[in-house]
Structures are given as C-alpha cells and as structure tokens.
Amino acid sequence: MNNDENIKVAGSSPAGRTRKSLSDQLMKPPGKPGFACTLFLVFFGGATLSAPAADDALAWPVLTSQTRPWAYWWWMGSAVDKTNLTRELQRYHDAGLGGVHIVPIFGAKGWESNYISYLSPRWMEMMGYTVTEAHRLDLGVDMTTGTGWCFGGPNVASRDANASVVVRMFDLAARERLKEKFDHDATQALVAFSPEGKCLELTESISTNGEVFFSPPNGTWRVYAISQNPSSQKVKRAAPGGEGWMLNPFYPPAMSNYLRRFSDAFTNYDGPKPRAQYQDSYEYKSAWSPDFFAQFEKRRGYKLQTELPALFGTNQDDHAARVKSDYVKPSPTSWWRNRSRSGLSGRMNTVLSRATKRTARPAICSTSTPWQTFLRRKYSAPIAIRSFPNSPRPLRT
Fold this sequence. Notes:
The structure is a single chain. Helix 4 runs parallel beside helix 5 (121-136), helix 6 (252-267) runs parallel beside helix 11 and helix 10 (332-342) runs parallel beside helix 11. Helix 4 links the parallel strand 1 and strand 2 (99-105). The relative contact order is 0.12. The protein folds into 3 domains: 3-144, no CATH class; 152-158 and 232-379, no CATH class; 163-230. The chain is α/β, with parallel strands linked by helices. The strands form 3 sheets. The chain has a 5-stranded parallel beta sheet with strand order 1-2-3-10-11. A 4-stranded antiparallel beta sheet has the order 5-8-6-7. It is elongated. It contains 12 helices and 11 strands. The two termini are 54 Å apart.
C-alpha cells in the first residue's frame, strides 16, 4: 500500500475512522513520533492552535481549518479551470490541509493559450470559484496582493518604483558658466559648494528650458545634481498581467497608487472573497525616494542637501561618517510606523478593506523586513519572525 492510500480524512470511511488523515497522524502528543513535524507544519504553515478543551487543560485542541497546515498554491500563468480547481482542493482537503494561499507566477510553456491575466474579470471569477469550493470543503483561502514577488506590476510608474539615487558632479572654475541642462521635475537637488564648504541652493533656479545661470565668483566650485532612477528590480516570477517595476516601499504614495487596481477589481466584483490579502517578504532594493530629502530633514533635523560632499564625496573624516550614519541608519520605529500606517501594511488595510467591504484582512510575512534586521543587530542573534495569516490587524508601533 502506498502513502497516498493512507491519506484519507478521518471519519470519511463508512466503517468509521479506520484510516487517519495526514493531520491526525501528525497531531500526536509530545513524546510520540510526528511531534517535531507537527511543530514545523503549524509554525511554518501559517496556522495557530485553538484553545484546549475547557474540561481538560492538557487535552489536544479540536482540529479546525485554522489549526491545520496551510500551503502556498502557485498558479502557473493563472492557467486554471473550474474542474481542476475542484480536483486539487479536494486533494488538499483529503491530505489534511486547512487552507491555501494563492500566488500567481510565471506560466508553463505550451499552456500560453490558457493563461489568464491577473485581476481580469476571468481571473476574479476563478478566484471566487476557488473560495466557494474551498468553503464547501472547510478550507480557507488567502491571496498575495500581486504576482510573484515583490509587490509591483504594470501600473507602477518609474517615480513609484524601487529607486537608486543618481549623483552627477560638475566642477566649475571662477566665472565659468554651468552649461549643463537639467530637468526641473526630475532634479531633486541642485547645490553648488565652494572650496570652503559654503553651499548655494540652485534647484529653484532651473529655468523652463533647463538652463541654470550660475558662475562661481572665485575659486573652483563643485555642483551636485541629485535625481533618481528605478533600481532595475522588476517583479520576480511575475504572472501574466503582473509584470512591471517593483514598487518603492519607502514612498507611501507608491503603495496607494499600486493598490488602485485592486480597489477597482474588487469594487466591480460581487463574488466571494479571500479571507486575507498577503504582504510578501521584504526583498526590495531601494535606497532613495522622491521625498527623501524632506523625510530626512523631518527625522534628522537638518537638510541633507547641505551635506552632499560629506555623503557622496571621498572624505573619511568624522563629520562625513556621521552624515553617512544618519543616511544609512534611520530609526526602526519611525520606519516601521511609516510602513505600517501609511506604507505597505496600513495602505493595504485601508484600501483593500474598503474595496472588499471589510471581508478581507491583511496578512504580513515579516521575514527579511528591516524590523527583523534591526532585532538581529540589536540582540546579535538569528531571530525568525513570522506573522500568522489569521492575525486580526497589521503590526503597530
């Protein structure tokens, strides 16, 4: 007899519970085989234990969909159909799973004609059918707020994308005119510095045709022009309809703009909805944002524009080290508050709760977040943080 023949839901046999399900085999008391595996499936499958029976504090909890393991469910190219969705969900139920987490990714070659574009009416229909069938089988359904990872897609403009700072420097001798032309909208700072360190703000001096009428009065001055470009990161393993730039998690408006397509999709959809919208792990490569200078001044109390030689120059003195430290080491509390209340988690909670009429909640994967990095550094220990999908609210500080 193979393993598949042993995996059957307890109580489904007419003769009684002659065969145990996978979860029943695993849910054994401590000290018996299978307990270590139980812990792995519970803590890494996204499930939490219900309260023990009231009459016996040591009794094993009653099994529910919340206490059984959950699993990522890759929809390759979203090439799904109702027949196979029902078949797969039945298999997951019979194997003892408690729920699934829909993650659309790239498709399989040869199946291109069956691809379904992400968040299209057809895709929403398949998602709704999945939720209906899952509920019939006492399974839960979550979905990632995007395809592949990380968040991003066709509606993420370059301004909202993961950003890298662009620094251009021009050395001008006394009375030499600055000949370079600049894009007023793209240039975040244009500052000239004298040999003695005096700075002159030129950003607002950029004319409509990009010219700046500036010549150093004496000595050799250096002009810094600061802008940004997308960091080249695009959504990894994107599904059809999900390709595009990764968004910038340091720029809250990027999340608001990104979530509009979800608001539109769910506002125009009347079918059953997933239990939770999922925020994937932090794997972004971003070092700048359109409002970086303003946010830096708000948190540090001085203008970074006046310290560009210290930040981008070659000096190794104490002053330069302090400026660079202020740049690379923002307050974890401030960053997390910005992220959870007006960034990723908070905007997901606000926008999606409106779009789904509060039937979906946010779920957060804290793996690889800056908060985890902060804790690792603070306590010098490998700390693994995971937020379970049934957490009622995003983390707050």
